[in-house]
């Protein structure tokens, strides 16, 4: 069974590591490495409605990834021999 270019593109689009998504992720990473002045200058060229949508989408990703940070911290604490109960006890002081 042979796939057309169009069918292959549709399949790749559905994957998390499709070339387009990888390149877009690299573009966003590169944007994050720019100075705040340069980012603001570029953002002035984008309609406000688009900027609002971008901010909303980024906030959704940030909220969904908070647990990743909690997991990393929990593993680091566990490696140091600190239990969740000990941490909770310390924080409640």
Can you tell me about this structure?
- The protein has five helices and no strands.
- With 93 residues, it is mostly helical.
- Residues 28-88 form the DNA-binding protein H-NS-like N-terminal domain.
Q: Helix/strand-derived class?
A: mainly alpha
Compute the CA-based radius of gyration: 21 Å
Helical run tally: 5
Distance between the termini: 66 Å
Estimate the mean pLDDT confidence.
84
Task: Bin the helical content.
Answer: over 70%
Kindly state the number of beta strands. Answer: 0
Low-pLDDT segments = none
List the helices and strands and how they pair.
Layout: H1 5-14, H2 19-32, H3 36-43, H4 48-79, H5 84-91
What is this entry, summarized?
It contains 5 helices and no strands. The chain has helices at 5-14, 19-32, 36-43, 48-79, 84-91.
Keywords:
single chain, H-NS-like_N, 93 residues, DNA-binding protein H-NS-like N-terminal domain-containing protein, 0% strand, mainly alpha, flat
């Amino acid at each position: 069974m042979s796939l057309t270019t169009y069918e292959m593109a549709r399949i790749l689009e559905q994957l998390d590591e499709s070339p387009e998504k990888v390149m877009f992720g690299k573009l966003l990473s590169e944007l994050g490495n720019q100075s705040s002045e340069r980012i603001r200058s570029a953002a002035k060229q984008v309609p406000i409605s688009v900027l609002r949508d971008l901010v909303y989408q980024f906030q959704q990703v940030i909220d969904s990834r908070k647990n990743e940070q909690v997991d990393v911290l929990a593993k680091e604490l566990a490696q140091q021999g600190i239990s969740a109960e000990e941490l909770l006890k310390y924080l409640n002081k």
